[in-house]
Design brief:
By secondary structure, this protein is mainly beta. It is about 10% helix and about 35% strand. This is Glyoxalase.
Length: about 90
């Protein structure tokens, strides 16, 4: 897997792809993640249309995925807690 990160102001764009030769056809958007101030409140708002909140890969952050098709969305979607800023 190859990952590249682009910082666009407060937005971080993460591009992930295979180091192997690309498949036939155009590239596509695999998913999108939104940072939310209160992940528990967000998960509560969406109710059973989210997976259980769990620890994210980044230390101190938590994440959940939305059941995007149940919400009429075509793109896999996650929400994540804000990063912990080091001083």
């Amino acid at each position: 897997m190859r990952q590249i990160f682009f910082r666009l102001g407060e937005v971080i764009l993460e591009v992930v792809g295979s180091p192997e030769t690309a498949r036939e056809g155009p590239s596509r958007l695999w998913g999108i993640t939104y940072v939310v101030a209160d992940i528990d409140a967000t998960a509560s708002f969406f109710g059973d249309r989210t997976a259980p909140v769990k620890d994210a890969v980044q230390p101190g952050r938590r994440i959940t995925t939305l059941r995007h098709r149940d919400l009429g969305m075509s793109v896999p979607t996650a929400v994540i807690s804000p990063p912990i800023l080091m001083s």
